[in-house]
Amino acid sequence: MYYLQLAILALGAVLLNYNFLISMLCIIIFLLITWKNKNLNARKTIICIIVFLAFFIRGAYEQKTNTTHISDEKNIDIILTIDDRIQVNGNYLKGIAKLNKEKVLFTYILKDEKEKTFFKEHFQGGMLKVNADIEDIGEKKNFYSFDYKKYNENKGIFKNVKVNDIKNFEENKGIISKIKIWRISLGNKIHKEISFDKSGYIEALIFGDKAYLEKDEIINYKNLGTSHLLAISGLHLGVLISLIYFILLRLRFSVEIIEKIVFLVIPFYMLISGFSPSVLRAGGMIMLYIIFRKKDMTKLEALLTTFILMLFINPLFIFDIGFELSFLITFCLLMSDDFLSGSKNIFTSGFKISLVSSLASLPILVMNFYTFSYTSIISNIFLVPIFSLVIFPLVLISYVVFLFSSTMFNVIFKPI
Hints:
Blueprint: H1 2-15, H2 20-37, H3 42-65, E1 73-82, E2 87-89, E3 92-99, E4 102-109, H4 113-122, E5 126-136, H5 148-153, E6 159-170, H6 175-193, H7 199-207, H8 215-224, H9 234-250, H10 255-272, H11 277-292, H12 299-313, H13 321-335, H14 337-341, H15 346-369, H16 376-404, H17 406-412
C-alpha cells in the first residue's frame, strides 16, 4: 500500500501545477489511505514529503518550459528536420517535424506525381529546406469535440507549418536521427514489398502506425470498442514476452537465460514501437518485476514504481490518453485479482476481465471523446483472445519471415 500512497502523492504534486481540484482530490485520497492503514513512520513520512516536493518542482519546471519559442510568420524560409513517419493521402502530405529543435506539425500539397512517388516510396527522413507559413494550431470549434490543440500542446507541439514550396532536401547525419530513420525504413519496407492489401495490419501491430489501414476498418474497430487492438500496447508486449517464454522453455533454456533475452527484446520493441507510453509502462513493469522479484516485489508494486519513474521523467505523460488507459486498466485488473481468480471457466474469466477493463476506461474515454462503446464489453471477450493467441503471434512470425525474405513471405502468407 505504501507504493500506492507514493504514486498518488506524486500524481497530486504534479497536478498541483495544472489542475488544483484533481490535485486536492489525490491528496485527500492519500490522507484517507494513510489514516486507514496507519503505516507511516518517521522515515516513510520524510520520504513522502521529499516525493511531494520533488514532483511538484518537476511539474512546475515542465509547465514553465513547455512553451513555444517560434513566432507566427508568412512566406519564411526554414529548415524542417523530419525523423518520424509521414502520411501521404492523395496529394496531401502531413507529419511531425522539428523546427529549431521544437516539434511542429507540417502539411504540404504535393505538386506532381514525382513528388508524390518520392515521399511515398523513397523518403525516409531528413532535412527539408522549405518556404512556409507558421501559425498556431486551431482551437476546437465544438465543445463536445476532441481538443486537438490541447492534445498536441501536451506533447510539446504548438505550431502548424503550412509548406508552400520545397526547395532542397538533405539527409540528416545525426546518430539519433539515423536510428529513427532506420525505424522508418523498416515500416516503408513493409509497405513497398508486401504484395497484398492487408499490410497495414502488420505496420499497425509491429510499428504502431495505422496510417495504411483503411478508414472503414478503423471505424469498425472503434465502433466495436476494440480499436486498442490495432495500437501497440502493453497487451502486445505481454503476448510477445509470453511467446518467448513458451518457445524457449520448450527448447530447455534456463529461466536466467530467457530473462536476459527478454531484457534485450524489451528495449528493441520499445524502439520500433516509437516509445509509446503504454509500451514503456509494460516494458518498465516487466523489467522491474524480473529484477526485484527475488526481493518480493509484487506486480502491483512494479506497476506503481514504473508509474512514478515515468511521471518524473515526463510529467506531461499524465495528459497522454494511452498512458492514462494503460496504467488505470492494469491497476484495476491487479486490484481485482480476487474477483478475477474466482472464475469457473475461460468464458467467465474473459467476461470479468473485459468488464473491469471497460469500466476502468469509461471515465477517460468519456472525458476525452464524450463517447463510450457498450458493445466493447462483449466484443473484447471474443476478439482479445483471438488477437492475443492467434493474430498477433502470426503477425510476429510472418514479420520474422519477411525480414529474411519478402518473396517467401508473399508466397507463404498471401491471403487465399
